[in-house]
Write a structure and sequence with these properties.
Elements lengths: L20 H15 L15 H14 L5 E6 L8 H18 L12 E4 L2 H10 L11 H15 L15 H12 L11 E7 L4 E6 H6 L7 H8 L9 E4 L6 E5 L2 H4 L3 H10 L13 E6 L15 H24 L3 H4 E4 L13 H17 L1 E5 L5 E7 H20 L6 E3 L16 E3 L3
Parallel strand pairs: 1-2, 1-7, 2-3, 7-8
Antiparallel strand pairs: 3-4, 3-6, 5-6, 9-10, 11-12
Helix pairs in contact: 3-5, 3-13, 3-14, 4-8, 6-8
Amino acid sequence: MAAVSTSPMINGIDSGFEVDKLTYEIFSILENKFLFGYNNEPKNPKNSLSSENQLSVDGVKSAKHNTGKVRILCIDGIGSTDGILAAKSLSHLEACLRRKSGNPNAHIASYFDVAAGSGVGGILAALLFTRGRDGFPMFSAEGALKFLMENRRKIFRSSSSGIFRRALRSPSKIEKVFGNIFGECTLKDTLKPVLIPCYDLITRAPFLFSRADALEMDGYDFKMRDVCIATSADPVSAGPVVMKSIDGRTEIMAVDGGVAMNNPTAAAITHVLNNKHEFPFCNSVSDLLVLSLGNGVSEFNTGRPNISPAGFARIAGEGASDMVDQAVSMAFGDGGIKNYVRIQPIGMKAPKTQANPSKTTRDLLGMTEEMLRQKNVESVLFKGKKVVESSNIEKLDLFGGELIKEQERRKTSILPTVVLKHASPSPRTSSATSLSTLSSGC
């Protein structure tokens, strides 16, 4: 992880070093063809438009210049605030959206087209994007923040070392917490596409819970309560969790999504760019608005001779998150100032959790408020990181303005930015999808 100071450019390559054209072109090729898995010609005919149709779509898009941007929300798992920072950021953003739009009932789910979350970020995504009985999201952002604060001690507990505070309690208590909230809701019951990772010990590979997959096949539809358990099942203290899909055909042995994908931003971008059914006009990162929320970085005693396995897991997760941020920043380039925003404060030590757990939650909330007042830190192509003039709160406000602009643009747009698939009404059958719904304002 790059060191940060208040100077315009920090560490990395010397400020006088100029990257040659060949190196820049190599990085561009890597970004376009390998990093995010897209190029000019779709390779999967099942999940892409045909070449002829693609030419037609591109022609319409270039003629109208008004197909808009797909809005993506991504939430990290492992961090020093146990999800409180991301929840507080979303609460502030939702309040901003309500104020600027004039709609006191606006929800986060109304202003994003895709949500991806890992670990506690996956729990937040589930709370904010699962459909309630009234057809609206189960939780507002403020409600999700309150839930996390009230239930944090039921969901998380300190490990014996006191460093890794994300270990889950017994499965029965976890099932009760999430079962009371989600009941029998499944991935199909989300309002928008969601992506929530875990790591499957059976296949020894990341497993991505996806609404799109659930709508295609019941073999990939899981109960939301199980999804939340899987993505936050700590491998150090809680161990793996065995679960099956709704129809019993798919079985996984899951541990925390942060093991393989603590920052799900790259996975979310890849999903959108390759999902031509639901995002027909999205061909590059220039067609995206992405908000990526971290949960703070941990501080370790570098002089300590032995770091616990939990400590190494946290270091690995946070390091991987930083690498994803660097890669996504490279893909957006200089044009990503408004299109890609990353909120990840650094340099603040989280309060200890063993002395007084009830007080610690309040301390974490106060600490996250201070984090949001910090200057925002951006990754810079080939040059590490820099501190910008805007604070994290100001960045969220500016991004909220972009979300509202896109929402208003869709009201008068002829072409749909998003074409969401919807689940068949219950009782569900093996044919999970109904006709797609054209949505330029969803």
